[in-house]
Amino acid sequence: MAAPTKAQFRHPTDDPAWAKAVVIGLVLAFLGLVLILPLAAVFAEALRKGLAPAIEAISTPDAWAAIKLTLITAGIAVPFNAVFGLCAAWAIAKHEFPGKPLLITLIDLPFSVSPVVAGLIYVLVFGLQGWFGDRLVDHDVKIIFAVPGIVLATIFVTFPFIARELIPLMQEQGVSEEEAAVSMGASGLYTFWRVTAPNVRWGLLYGVLLCNARAMGEFGAVSVVSGHIRGLTNTMPLHVEILYNEYDFVAAFAVAALLCLLAIVTLVLKSLLEIAQPDVKRGGGH
Amino acid sequence: MTISIRSVEKKFGRYPALNHVDLEIADGELVALLGPSGSGKTTLLRTIAGLEFPDAGQVLFEGQDVTFASAAARRVGFVFQQYALFKHMTVARNIAFGLDVRKGKDKPPKAEIARRVEELLNLVELEGLGKRYPSQLSGGQRQRVALSRALAVQPSVLLLDEPFGALDATVRKSLRKELRRVHDATGVTTIFVTHDQEEALGLADRVAILNAGRIEQIGTPDEVHDNPATPFVCGFVGEANRFEGTVSGGRFTSGALSFAANGAGDGPAVAFVRPHDFALDDGGFEVRVVRAHVQGALTAVSATTADGRHIEISASRAEAARFAGAIKIAARRSHVYSL
Questions:
Q1: CA B336 – CA B260 distance, rounded (Å)
Q2: CA distance B133 to chain A (A)
Q3: Which pLDDT tens digit goes with each residue over B93-126?
Q4: Interstrand relation of B241-248 and B251-254 (parallel, antiparallel or unpaired)
Q5: Would you kindly state where each structural domain of chain B is located, as residue ranges?
Q6: Which among B306, B312, B331 has a CA at the least distance from the CA of B241?
Q7: I need a labelling partner for A100 at 20 to 30 A (CA). Which of A212, B140, B177, B335 fits?
């Protein structure tokens, strides 16, 4: 047998070039077909009759109302879930208490429940025929088919994002820094703000971006509780659907394109964060 | 600060981590808690620190019951195994932390804190590194920062959990000397946990050896090495050949091996002989030398007995020339324990 030359040497875990080409090609083809092509189609359809009609479509009062409502909803849901996620992750990762596995399961619930069901839950509880329906009517409080219902449904659907991001991070960091702080006389609150929180700030920001992307794009749960009142309870995804069902394709795709742009901006921010902080996924320091 | 541990017990679930532990530590002493993993040494240290509370028993500082006092109230300085430095704070802020958290009149003025930080950086030979972040330091330097952070609050007792565990051998040696120097300079009562007997014997005034949640023996390094109180200590501290056999009429016998039983009563027994306690002796038992290799000033000899058991012998380089082929050896000294 002839001794292999240096040119013939292949690293043990190196696959042959044709195998790499096939695998990478398959992935790219798949991505192109299910991700890139539809995304491009959204923008292409939006701009089919030129830029002016697209801009006009997103400038109508109804579109503006939908954009505003989407931003308001995300603006409430995301901070709420940030606080909730931080508290839950802190409790789960740093403390032992009875019922902890149950809490972890509950946090995952929105991931496993269909968004439509999530919306129905709120209709059942707060709707006119719901448990609290009469009392809410008596006090003139509108939740279902109004902004509070939309915010609640969005919070429900997006609440695992930040908690799920923070729990593994905090678990990995352990409690010794907190113990060190407390042993030197720091109070619980001081320790949280000066030691725990700074260690998870990048993970928190990452979770917030993910949560925000989902909050702006949520359709199912919001659709159930919204009532689709134009200019009042339509978020951007719902507005897209209405326009589409009315065969106003240019307007539908224009609003959809704007929604996509918001999502893309979020993802770009997220990627920039990963580049600037390569260890975001592992936590603050080293 | 004297520390008394009285009948302390601690269970994690059903697993007893500390089982009736008693320990007295004198003011200014440097004590090592030595034991294998799972022996309860870290739990004992954390109980002394106030990071863990015992299920039963008492912890006293200077005669005062502090069993359920917080770590801060006890004024302990604790050095964590992985140092637990605050990653987002500079070295100087890390060291100052214990002073920064104080409130009102207890809090020293800024200039005083800065002076104290400088002083501590000098003490651990890290001058000029105050503005660095922990991630910019080597393992040994992080260790020093952790040590000075613990000392910043002028603790009544300094506690260290496996302080050199994560370091390579050379750094470990120099830091060991460093800890001894810092201890001698500050005079603070110091307790450290280790599973490395060389570290414990080389550094501490006294060594407490733990096994399965109990203290097997406490004494000076010489005492625990030369007069081990239990078979566990004998096997754990220093190297030893272990033999199972019986004692009768003042002699320990195990197959072809036989030597004086050192006062152990008749019946089944276990015996330990240190490698350097074997010597060539025509009146002894026969072994066959398998291998010999240099080990510093000594030669380590591996041999097998007539009945196929393995024996480790260490001899001076000059003497070792005679350790070849079939030889006769005897135990000059042995530790025999009745079972």
A1: 9
A2: 9
A3: 999 999 999 888 888 999 999 999 999 999 888 9
A4: antiparallel
A5: 3-234, 240-338
A6: B312
A7: A212
Round to whole Å and give the CA distance between B143 and B80.
Answer: 9
Q: pLDDT class for A282, splitting at 50, 70, 90?
A: very low
Q: What are phi and psi of B270, to 5 degrees?
A: -125, 140
Question: A14-71, pLDDT tens digit by residue?
Answer: 778 888 899 999 999 999 999 899 889 888 888 888 888 888 888 888 889 999 999 9
- CA-nearest of A217, A227, A216 to A149 is A227
Count CB neighbours of B147 within 10 A.
25
Mean pLDDT by groups of 10 residues along chain B of 339 residues = 93 88 95 93 94 94 93 92 92 94 88 93 90 92 93 92 86 88 92 93 95 94 93 91 91 86 86 90 86 88 89 87 85 89
ipTM, two decimals, is 0.82
Q: B72–A180: do the CB atoms touch at under 8 Å?
A: no
Dist CA B59 CA B68 (whole Å): 8
* Domain B3-234, CATH class in plain words: alpha beta
Give the amino acid at A195: V
Cβ-based contacts of A180 with chain B (< 8 Å): 78, 80, 84, 86, 149
Of A183, A194, A199, the CB nearest to B71: A183
Please tell me chain A's helix, strand, coil percentages from 3-state DSSP, rounded to the nearest 5.
75, 0, 25
The Cα A281–Cα B262 span in angstroms is: 62
Nearest CA in chain B to A186: B101
A48, two tokens? 């089919």
CA distance to B3, B11, B48, B84, per residue, from B63 (Å): 8, 25, 14, 31
In chain B, which residues touch A (CB < 8 A)? 49-51, 70-72, 76, 78, 80-82, 84-88, 97-98, 101-102, 133-135, 149, 153
Between CA B220 and CA B226 the distance in angstroms is 10
B3-234 and B240-338 in the same fold? no
Cβ <8 Å between B98 and A176: no
Q: What is the pLDDT at residue A278?
A: 59
Architecture of domain B240-338: Beta Barrel (2.40)
Q: Give me the residue from B72, B81, B87 closest to A184, CB to CB.
A: B72
